């Protein structure tokens, strides 16, 4: 697929892309541009707009107004220039999560600050590789959709979209078909509200793929605090006070006590020295997660054997001060647009090296994520915010990944330089039930056929393993 995106798509394809976008269905006609943009919604919002045909499908009857009748032109859908409510992140979703999108997705957006339209930008069509494992309650909820990677575009109030199926060859003549039910998702991250301190008691842990902590009798919130927020905040006690916006850094000696909180109270004295110093972690409350979006309760696995490193593929056009908003947008895209129970990643790291709590359930615990299809069980997912296929990851971000893995893997007595064995839950590289030997610190592409975490971030994994082990104090 990436070869297609990187190569010339031919004269016929270029002609199709150049056709007037005003040929879209009348229902999607653009309102007049230039009106004042709607204000940002404090709690965030998602606009979901259907994509209409822009060109003939391979099997569509000839004579579609203004279009060539050549059967070789690939199917094209999109949205003409349109003024919308303010948003900062975009992505495309479709009905069937098992249907892959083979083609090219491009957007243009209008900046609120300047009123100028951007150039066309590509959205990565990486499909299902970031997703819940097959045959889990999360994947079988009936809400999960197929989706592209999200793209951070900044504060915008206008959008134009075009999606073109991969063109056919002279041998096949007909190109790929686009998935049904395609929609553009426009995500407004909203603004954070002041934190209210809560009084809560941490619930008991559950087993893999069975929610735990659903009993709201275990959580008590002060006036003005939702039960969901109290539940999420309580999962990090006593690493941080209830209602804390961050979990403070600790030196190596003090970090050994965190192993008990990870559920490994039997960690041997010999293993305890190999827990790295705990890094500073911004909690979900700190980055403004709307806890009412996610499913209540938490899902745990038995241990953490490996860390999978990702890039969010959402672009590098963000300032570090915007990272919480980027994370709120990713969270909303994963839950509202893609249909997952919570943010897919267990942790996120921004370009300045700040570490953020991801999926709820407690940063020291073995929380089941939705980051590496087939290998979410007994692993953790760390996403570096940005796209690192052709852009080198900042040194601060790489250092933060080493610090985070030295601590979290150390809680479960894992050597970052070692190998481990995980059982595949099913994917495009390994059949379900296959025992696969992987690096304790792996890239997403090691468990799934994908470009993630981008070749330049992937190239940093060998020195990251060494740095992480050194932080653990291993010889």
Automatic annotation (TrEMBL):
Residues 35-45 have a biased composition (Low complexity). The keyword Signal applies. Keywords: Signal. Residues 1-29 form the signal peptide. Residues 35-79, 123-149 are annotated as: Disordered. Residues 123-140 have a biased composition (Basic and acidic residues). Belongs to the N-acetylmuramoyl-L-alanine amidase 2 family. This is Peptidoglycan recognition protein.
């Amino acid at each position: 697929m990436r070869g297609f995106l990187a190569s010339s798509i031919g004269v016929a394809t270029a002609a199709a892309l150049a056709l007037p976008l005003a040929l879209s269905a009348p229902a999607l006609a653009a309102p007049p541009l230039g009106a004042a943009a709607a204000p940002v919604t404090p709690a965030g919002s998602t606009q979901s707009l259907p994509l209409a045909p822009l060109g003939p499908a391979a099997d569509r009857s000839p004579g579609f107004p203004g279009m060539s009748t050549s059967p070789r032109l690939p199917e094209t859908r999109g949205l003409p220039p349109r003024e919308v409510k303010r948003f900062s992140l975009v992505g495309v979703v479709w009905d069937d999560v098992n249907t892959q999108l083979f083609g090219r997705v491009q957007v243009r957006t209008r900046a609120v600050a300047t009123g100028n339209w951007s150039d066309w930008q590509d959205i990565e069509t990486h499909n299902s590789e970031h997703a819940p494992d097959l045959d889990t309650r999360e994947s079988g909820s009936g809400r999960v959709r197929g989706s592209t990677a999200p793209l951070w575009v900044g504060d915008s109030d206008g959008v134009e979209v075009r999606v073109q199926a991969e063109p056919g060859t002279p041998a096949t003549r007909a190109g790929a078909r686009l998935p049904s039910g395609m929609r553009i998702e426009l995500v407004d991250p909203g603004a954070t509200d002041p934190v209210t301190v809560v009084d809560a008691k941490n619930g008991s842990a559950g087993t893999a793929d069975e929610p735990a902590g659903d009993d709201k009798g275990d959580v008590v919130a002060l006036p003005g605090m939702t039960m969901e927020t109290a539940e999420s905040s309580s999962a990090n006690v006593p690493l941080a006070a209830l209602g804390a916006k961050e979990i403070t850094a600790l030196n190596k000696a003090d970090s050994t006590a965190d192993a008990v909180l990870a559920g490994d109270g039997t960690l041997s004295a010999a293993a305890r020295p190999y827990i790295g110093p705990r890094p500073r972690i911004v909690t979900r409350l700190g980055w403004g997660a709307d806890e009412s979006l996610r499913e209540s309760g938490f899902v745990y696995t038995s241990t953490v054997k490996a860390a999978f490193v990702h890039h969010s593929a959402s672009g590098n056009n963000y300032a570090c001060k915007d990272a919480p908003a980027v994370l709120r947008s990713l969270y909303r895209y994963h839950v509202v647009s893609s249909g997952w129970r919570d943010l897919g990643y267990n942790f996120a790291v921004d370009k300045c090296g700040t570490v953020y709590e991801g999926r709820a359930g407690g940063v020291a615990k073995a929380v089941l994520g939705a980051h590496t299809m087939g290998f979410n069980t007994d692993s953790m997912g760390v996403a570096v915010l940005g796209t690192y296929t052709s852009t080198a990851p900042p040194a601060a971000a790489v250092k933060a990944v080493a610090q985070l893995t030295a601590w979290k893997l150390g809680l479960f007595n894992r050597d970052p330089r070692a190998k481990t064995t995980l059982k595949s839950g099913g994917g495009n590289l390994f059949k379900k039930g296959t025992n696969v030997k992987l690096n304790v610190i792996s890239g997403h592409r090691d468990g799934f056929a994908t470009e993630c975490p981008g070749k330049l971030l992937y190239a940093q994994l060998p020195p990251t393993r060494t740095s992480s082990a050194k932080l653990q104090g291993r010889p």
